[in-house]
Amino acid sequence: MSSLNPVEPFDLIIFGGTGDLAMRKLLPAIYRRDEAGQLPDPSRIIGIARAPMEVSEFQQRLYSALNKYLGADPDETVWRRFSSRLSYLDLDVTDKTAQNWRGLHTLLEADANPVRAAYLSVSPRIYGAIASGLSANNLVTDDMRLVLEKPIGIDQDSANAINEAVGRYFNENQIFRIDHYLGKETVQNLLALRFGNAIFEPLWRREVIDHVQITVAEELGVGNRVEFYEHIGALKDMVQNHLLQLVCLVAMEPPVSLDVDAVRSEKIKVLKALKPISGADVLTQTVRGQYRAGAVDGVAVDGYEDELTEASNTETYVALKLEIENWRWSGTPFYLRTGKRLPEKRSEIVIRFKPVPHSIFSGLQPNGLRISLQPDEGVKLTTMVKEPGPGGFELEAKDLDLSFAEAFGGATYPDAYERLIIEVLRGNPTLFMHRDEVAWAWRFIDNITEGWQNEGQKVEKYFAGSWGPHGASNLLDRDGRAWQADL
């Protein structure tokens, strides 16, 4: 399979190499690719952080992290090979003097590999400082890749400032803005489903589809991110990137090819076509919620304000009604919801088709297409079939169920970060965001936050373990619709 083709030997520098994301996601993902035989010698992984540390301590920390997050001790042979690739340097990235960067300069110049990538797993506030330091110390090669983690800013102005800061030293085709949802197997299968099957494309339009629902639900609360989350909230943390990217993939026009510019161009068109939600419209088209104490899976949990230890108007749940003003989707609403402390972890896209124009049957239900992104990846198409037997002509809704795990022999799929890191090393930016995508997404989000502030929209409390505030149900109920728990 092409996904297992080795990459060229590389030097991967992880700024923030001892942080939570690096230990929980990035380094385990790279280890998995080494386990699969995808990393060539003499590839190197260089952890960068401020704290002085011996390489042996860095290796031991990672070994413990692999045990924790992969559920078992690393394979002895794989670990020996992988750990030999690891280096560690302490570095103050805000100081771009040659003396401060000498260790990294020396390491990279010795036995330099053909591919060089820097992963910025740090606060976006210092993205520009790192780019400047790399450039000032002659560490930026012509095809070097720079990976930026979300969030890219907290609004359009700050996002533009970050993109300008790194853009002084890196060309746009060198910058990889990561959204791990785009690395999920089922998210990519949206393209295959829509553009690889002739039965769907003629139906993918306002004349046939009644509405679209996108749900990203989490059981967990904000945990130790409470201080960070208080300044961000669910709208900026989840909708600006993950959910709007899903909207783009569902709503985009067929690209002329899978070329990066062709795909990105169609996604940007969707973002430009989003009807702004501003002013008093936020009161009827958006819902803000915040979890209070309750129970998830039978376990009592604190409310958000209990974790913060003070009163707050920050949303941990948000629901939106979007409209896309173009020929394909005009008049077809997209309903989005995401929240923490919900009953289960679930990410899915539900396409609800319009009813048949004239029914000769009783109890007829509209068809539906459910695309499950996690935890059980697959696609279900709900159709109406006759109940067997001589008792009459009664119809019942049944699913044509494509479970990816069953269809592909119980195969497990790589974590999204595994795929995305490999695509960075290959220099393929298709699954990453262009700066214009970031800017247009923030423009849409900024209108909502300004509307919330001007209209004084407060959060509506919901019990942890519920499906969110009552206002979210009312959002669809006003249109004669309901959230689909199951098809």
Overview of the molecule:
The chain is an alpha/beta fold and 487 residues long. Helix content is 36%, strand content 21%. It has 16 helices and 17 strands. Strands 16-15-14-13-7-12-11-8-17 form a 9-stranded mixed beta sheet, with helices on both faces. It has a 6-stranded parallel beta sheet with strand order 3-2-1-4-5-6, with helices on both faces. The longest helix has 21 residues, at 435-455.
Key terms:
single chain, 487 residues, alpha/beta, 17 strands, six-stranded parallel sheet
Strand fraction equals: 15-25%
End-to-end gap? 34 Å
Shape: globular
What class do helices, strands and sheet pairing give?
A: alpha/beta
How many DSSP helices? Answer: 16
Quaternary structure annotation: single chain
Let me know the largest β-sheet: 9 strands, mixed
Point out poorly predicted stretches: none
